[in-house]
Amino acid sequence: MKFQNKNFQFQIPSLDQAKQLLRDRLSGKEQFLARLIDKPLVLYGAGNLGHMACDYLRKINATPCAIVDAKAPMDDVNSWFDGYPLLNSINVPEKLKSNSLLAVCIVSASFEEIRQNMHAQGWLDIVPFYDIAESYRHIHPLSNGWFAEPFSERDLVEIELVLETYADDVSRAHYLQFLAWRRLRQEWHFDGFEIQADNRFYIPEIKSKLGKHEIFVDIGAHHGSVSERFIEEVQGEFEEIIAIEPDKTNYLYLNECFKRQPKGIKERLRIFSEFVDERSSSRKFFPGLGYASQFSQVGGEIVKTTTIDNLHLEPTYMKIHLEGFELAALKGAIQTISQFRPKISLTVYHNTDGIYLTMAWLMKNIKNYRFIFRMHGWCGTGAVIYAIPA
After folding, report:
1. How many CB atoms lie within 10 A of CB 256?
2. Confidence band, pLDDT 50/70/90 cuts, at residue 87
3. How much is the pLDDT for 4?
4. To 5 degrees, how large is the angle CA 350–CA 351–CA 356?
5. Residue range 180-191: mean pLDDT, rounded
6. Is the pLDDT of residue 2 over 60?
7. All CATH 3.40.50.20 domain ranges in the chain, comma separated
8. What is the pLDDT confidence band of residue 77, given thresholds at 50, 70 and 90?
9. Alpha carbon distance 8, 106 (integer Å)
10. Which CATH architecture has domain 41-136?
11. Between β-strands 187-190 and 215-219, what pairing exists: parallel, antiparallel or unpaired?
């Protein structure tokens, strides 16, 4: 099926209304195929995702014709972005618009609104960048463009249980929006619904629970931005930050980040380089991908893994972002979670575990917790489960 996005508007649903939307609108049998680069490629968006897309394309030996951005200089025909021509969206030749594939590298705004705007400018073939990346998983592990298979009756029952478990109607709205994109590539909007990209891992419900003696464990720390945000949120009053980052390049950036912290802060910062997993074993790892470095069968590095339980940590707040291996990390942390009952934030948008398996595991294995679901990006990205001890 060729990508055909649609825009749907709903009220924030009650539990019964959420279940009805699930049964009536998300139980279809539509199939979806990821998009191959079958014509000249242009990227739209010169931000962080645009940078990552350029790096990704080099790794799969693909070359974009140009990068287009609404904020690019209009009067400078010699502008460049990561080594590729940078064009203002107003100055793009009509022939390029009609003959090329436009990959949208923006997830901080509604894709459908972007698509309609670019179509009005003359672009004919417009898709999210992640849907292109999904076609090349056999050589690169990036997996944010996955498409969920049609739901079985068992799937629907499990999803209904998840809907029942969320603490508020807003969680159910965010969750349905996530499911609609992943199952049907439909963009659902809810009245009063807001996607806030700038508060990932620090929603009000988490911030209100942060005290002066937190031990923050940042699992999948990348370059340290989430740990730096934690320091800001608690105004430097905390017991310890333990950052876990196994990718060697990321580890060096993270170490420099921590070294820049002022005296009195950096003494309370530690970095672990372990590969955390469900159990101690060996896995293939694909390094050097920035925040997308991950375990992968196409990875060229064999690494030894351990568990969070084996690290003997005492977290009060634990953030997990592991490019699809969050559930495995959780399973290897059950003793730690049960003993210390930390607040937990974890991403669930990298693979189908996020449909219900991760949430179902949490429901069954940690008791007296309040569960919240929030989207912090469009195109089914930035989905985070928050587990807060009652």
Report:
1. 11
2. very high
3. 56
4. 115
5. 94
6. no
7. 41-136
8. low
9. 20
10. 3-Layer(aba) Sandwich (3.40)
11. unpaired
CATH 2.60.120.580 fits 197-347, yes or no: no
Output the pLDDT for position 75: 75
Q: Phi-psi bin for 128: left (phi > 0), alpha (psi -120 to 50), beta? A: beta
Model confidence at 245: pLDDT above 60 = yes
Question: Are the beta carbons of 348 and 337 closer than 8 angstroms?
Answer: no
Is residue 180 pLDDT above 60, yes or no?
yes
- In which residue ranges of the chain is CATH 3.40.50.150 found? 197-347
Tokens of 4: 């055909």
Mean pLDDT computed over 116-136: 96
Tokens linked to 222: 């990348």
The C-alpha atoms of residue 177 and residue 197 are separated, in whole angstroms, by 15
Per the prediction, the chain carries an average pLDDT of 95
| Beta-bridge mates of residue 84 | 81
Quote the distance between the C-alpha of residue 96 and its chain's center. Answer: 31
Residue 3 has pLDDT above 60, yes or no: no
Phi and psi at 345, nearest 5°, equal -125, 130
Q: What pLDDT, in 10s, does the model give residues 296-353?
A: 999 999 999 999 999 999 999 999 999 999 999 999 999 999 999 999 999 999 999 9
Could you write out the three-class secondary structure of the chain? CCCCCCEEEECCCCHHHHHHHHHHHCCCCCCCCCCCCCCCEEEECCCHHHHHHHHHHHHCCCCCCEEEECCCCCCCCCCEECCEEEEEHHHCCHHHHHHCEEEECCCCCCHHHHHHHHHHCCCCCEEEHHHHHHHHCCCCCCCCCCCCCCCCHHHHHHHHHHHHHECCHHHHHHHHHHHHHHHHCCEEEECCCCCCHHHCCCCHHHHCCCCCCCEEEEECCCCCHHHHHHHHHCCCCCCEEEEECCCHHHHHHHHHHHHCCCCCCHHHEEEECCEECCCCCEEEEECCCHHHCEECCCCCEEEEEECCHHHCCCCCEEEECCCCCHHHHHHCCHHHHHHHCCEEEEECCCCHHHCCHHHHHHHHHCCCEEEEEEECCCCCCCEEEEEEEC
152-154-160-162 Cα dihedral, nearest 10 degrees: -110
Q: Is 149 left (phi over 0), alpha (psi -120 to 50) or beta?
A: beta
| Position 1 pLDDT exceeds 60 | no
pLDDT, mean of residues 214-219: 98
